Amino acid sequence: GGIFVYNTAMFHNTKKKQIILVRHAKAIELDDFNGMDFDRPLSEQGEQSLAIVAKYLRLIGVKPNRIVASPAKRTKQTAEWFHTQYPELKVEYIDKLYNGGSVGKRDGDTIHLEVVNKTKKDATILMIVGHNDDLTNFAHYLTGEGVPSMKKWSVAVMSLPDSLEWKDVKKWSLSFVYYLTPQFLRLEELI
After folding, report:
1. d(Cα 84, Cα 145) in Å, to the nearest integer?
2. Quick check: helix, strand or coil at residue 79?
């Protein structure tokens, strides 16, 4: 097995505000589903990967104060897992976070930024469960850094400077902390 060296920045720091972008777990492919894209559920593989990423997030002490998600079935299923871990938190479903294949026809960055800017001042960790390409584009928008295309059930974490409030987050104002995928965690034998 491999040796995993933890970066101390990867551990939850209650003093640093963070945004955690979570792409939904693997869903049944549209070609294999008799229905609308919005209604596609997680695949068996997607459900299994939930435990891998969840175990890692618990390991590093991540506890969001606010969880928002697209109302599509696959993002709901992904977000609901977090609700079972943090039952005191209610998942907020925001219709505009579902892109419905309309990337490029709308401003996903502005939609996601509005969610961030409306987060209450006392929250320290905001988790957004959504779709690609919106999440990859938004991570780049926030950090100005080259962010890999977010794989299914991957997590990208960004931190706010100490002096920045949620309402003041804007383009290129955050620092990229880390990105992880279930495949990486499997390699590190965290399952």
Report:
1. 33
2. helix
pTM, entire model:
0.87
Residue 151 and residue 16: Cα distance in Å, rounded?
26
Q: What is the pLDDT of residue 84?
A: 80
Residue 67: other Cβ atoms inside 10 A: 22
pLDDT on residue 59: 78
134's CB contacts (< 8 A; 6+ apart) are 97, 99, 103, 108, 111, 112
Average pLDDT over residues 174-189: 75
pLDDT band at 122 (very low <50, low <70, confident <90, very high): very high
Name the packing angle between helices 73-85 and 44-59 (round to 10°): 40
Q: Which of 191, 184, 163 is nearest to 175 (CA)?
A: 163
Instruction: Give the dihedral sign, CA 107/101/149/159.
Output: positive
Token pair belonging to 50: 């939930």
Q: How far is CA 31 from CA 20, 28, 132, 147, in A?
A: 30, 8, 18, 29
Average pLDDT, the chain: 84
Identity of residue 64: P
